Queue: 4 jobs
Job 1
Amino acid sequence: MLYRKIAEKIENHLKTSSKIMIVDGARQTGKSYIIRHVCKKLFKNYIELNFEEDFEGPGSFQNIHTIQDFYLQLSMLAGEKMGKASDTVIFLDEIQRYPHFFTLLKFLREDNRYTYIASGSQLGMALKNTTSIPVGSIQIEHMYPLDFEEFLMANGFGKEALDILREKYENSVLFDEATDKKLSDLFHKYLLVGGLPDAVKAYVETNNIVEVRRVHRDIMRLYIEDAVKYEKDSGRKLKIRRIYEMIPSNMERQKKRVVVKEIEDKKGKRYDNYIDEFDYLISSGIALGVKAVSTATFPLIEVTGKNLLKLYYNDVGLLTSVLYGNNIRAVLDDKLSVNLGSVYETVVAQELKAHGYALHYYDNKKKGEVDFLIDDYDTSTIVPIEVKSGKDYTVHSAINTFIENEDYAVEKGIVLYNGNELVEKDNVIYYPVYYTMFLSGNDEKDLIF
């Protein structure tokens, strides 16, 4: 099976915490698979309830509002597996389909008859519409597609090898030529495959780009079908599909941000007219939202306010599938005639998000634009990041201006570029772009209620 970092976190939680963990993330990121694997490893009795299937089928749990009614209904389906709290785990999959269960979780936890874990997509939207969030009872963990480290392990890298690489990175020791060549090669393949589990498995098992792209098309079709279903269920005519399909073309613009007037091709439309659509795309995990700031101070969440937004696909493989189809040479050969800027920015956004960073970028009319800003919790400062795919990676006037601004008290800037040297010059560190795998954030302050 594919190694996933979150498995250890789930296992430790089930062994030590009394809170109920809810694993949040986009469809097809492997939530159900990894929860199922860990639960069956730890518990004698494993019970799984899929609320999406129940909603589309018998609706057995649709009107359950008390723990007594829940246990009665559960006993009719899996009574022989209902043992003790120490040996019985109940997995509530797609919990967002029945939002009233968020409230019921509090009482199930207090009853302490069994161990519970849940998963959901569109969790942000569901909690937003929940009248009673069970404070003190749940912990939300976010799950994303495989990051580059997990992709390396899927392709034969051992954890010990990755630990050695990280130690070299922390000590600013450049990798030897053979190691760099191997990592660079696999990184470019990661740009093609991405980190969605089914696509990674298709690549590892077949090395066939046609099979990988088939998986990508199926997943994008699923995302769009979910959006259409959400629009229908909410009774509103939203423009989610249109915004989602605009992401690749927006990425080819100089500023790469969403141009709201083009969503419906109507003048007078503003950012506020599409808040529900943006919320859906980001909360469901199928798009990564990068918020603009014009004044940068630590922590960035306190200065986020501009109604400007960049959207990226949640997985770089989906982007290269749309842009290049089965043409692998455009990415593997880094052809000068092909602009890979949007691809590199997408993979960096994907890595930063998976590593616990909230995503921001700098947009200032007078001082330019910086691709990403991240919080450095060790120094309580902001780190600007520029992503360069071409040979002009040493040209970055915006990041220079940003660093020189005394109000921001910036200690260093990072340029991620398509090369193999590790260089520090004038408070800017130049890293090969795959070094993003070593940047580790603050786990986005896991949501604990």
Note: Confidence is low (pLDDT under 50) at residues 444-449.
Job 2
Amino acid sequence: MSFDMTQTLPEGLLPQVVRLWIDPVPRGGYENMAADELLSRRSEAWLRIYTWARPCVSFGYFDTSTVAAEIFPGEGVEYIRRWTGGGIVDHRKGYTYTVTLPAVEGVIYPPADKLYKWIHGALAEALKASGVDCTLLVEDAPDGGRACWASPVASDIVDPAGHKLAGAGQRRYRGAVLHQGLIQECEPAEGWEHLLAQALVPQVEEVFGEEPYAGFNEELDELCRTKYYSAEWNDESHGRRKPGKS
């Protein structure tokens, strides 16, 4: 099974190998964000599948926890700011995955919409093979607000009735790409993760264990401490303005 990537990405820009890591450790919200960022710094392409240690709602880089809590209230919910863009996402259900593309000297990856279509095209093929009736949305649906699932956009994955099943946010940094995605409102068959990896690239290398590489846990703790747990990262103004002020 292979998605026709020639329609979305120029030949030579696709990774030939992806490392598939089904993370066995349920992690806190910011631990998951830090783990994804660390993989985006590596010289390999990665597909990480992961779960959450606590109820979590994430919001895009320029949103706020105040707005997120208004849209998705709940006792004990952890509201976290993502490094990627996109809307406000409730992670209390569904399946979460991340794709990273490494920085390569002399390579500039195609625009976000092309990468989005490539990854979601592969995901749609994997979901279909896993028993989920779905397709890629051709154009943006009417704006439903900041809640990500209320506003499907082009190349999001939807069911036959137009209900959103999968969306994502992206971040580029120093030549690398981080794509954080979520699948909801459907139940793919066991093994969908492997089908996605196979639809993305010709060769899959599965990685096992609590650390995808030596020293990962130490780097994770350091990145959480210096960035994601910091007052600066959790400042609602993001360094621009105070909440509620123009």
Note: The longest strand covers residues 164-173.
Job 3
Amino acid sequence: MCSLETFKIDLKGMKTDEQCLEFDVDGDFFKTLNTSEVNDGALHVSVSIRKATGFYELLFHTEGTVTVPCDICLEDMEQPIVTDNRLVAKLGIATNTDDDDVVIVDENEGILDTAWLIYEFIALAIPIKHVHAPGKCNRVMTQKLEELSGADLSGKEEADKIDPRWEALLKLKK
């Protein structure tokens, strides 16, 4: 199992005004977080932290691939991910803000746990619809889906067929 302790950043303990951290995210990371969307992955995350007056600016750059199920055939597929995210961390007592880009860190601890933040950045970078490239889906599954649903999942649409209701309206127009 992956230790999530490595993803904790001690903001109060920063010795310089700028710091860069590197994380490698793999399948153990997703299993430890017990995520359902992502099965596996191999990503590299670079975090650049800049200390300013009253806040910390964190820039996340994530690059790699994740393994997600195909929406059509349900087999695993690799989805490339490249994302850049910005986050502002402030030390304070309150834990709730109205701004999604601002995180309040308990000033007594001064430690920001970035594990779940990194997962959210990755999950938001996955397209809503994730399908294999045309012709790469499991043929047995797509044939069964076509057979049961009556739909053509091969990517070809029947543009020539017109709904009979629209056809009747077209006759009225003429």
Note: The chain has a mean pLDDT of 85.
Job 4
Amino acid sequence: MPLKEYKISMEIAGPLAMWGRPDTGSSPTSYPIPTWSAAKGVFEAVAFFSDGKAWINPVRVEICKPVGTESTGELHYQKYTTNYRGPLKETGKSNYQFSALVVADVCYRLHAIIENGTANPLRKGANPCHYLKDKFNRRLKNGRCHHTPCLGWSEFVPTYWGPVRDESSIPEIRTEVDTAVTLNLVSILKNVFTPEVNGSYSPVFQQGEDSWIREGVFNYVE
């Protein structure tokens, strides 16, 4: 009998998002979708266990649009200028400005599986995966979070984050997968640290057939 999968989902949308490509240097450009690590961070903004007994493993992202709207399959980018206030700023000197290319008018559905982070089999009364799923769904429904989810950079606050707005939602706010979007990303950063929990710096990229967005859907691979 296969082990039970503890699945969770959420939706997040906003005017601007920055999922930084590491190959674009001091003038960063955004991927069109969140990396695996970024999606994990969005989920963990709602709920997570600091002891790692259960952890959230993103498996899929879907690019969405309002129900019934036409789509050309194109993604929209725009220039964004901000002040640098990072660790390389010289003490006593003014902040300097740099430009980035960010993705605009985004809406994503994120899907994940909660993994067992212990060395023990799950059982009734001692199941951290079930507990984390229940905690996550309860917080998501009530609009509660550990800290406000963001669309990459912390200043990119979403206009919506919460349960997936599917056919169970009121018609005015429903979204659907934008199946017109098919794109070869060539190479996309998956995660920065390996292994995924308490790992060391060892970036992993998805390439080849695993780098495609197909009909609005991108799957994170193991």
Note: DSSP finds two helices and eleven strands in the chain.
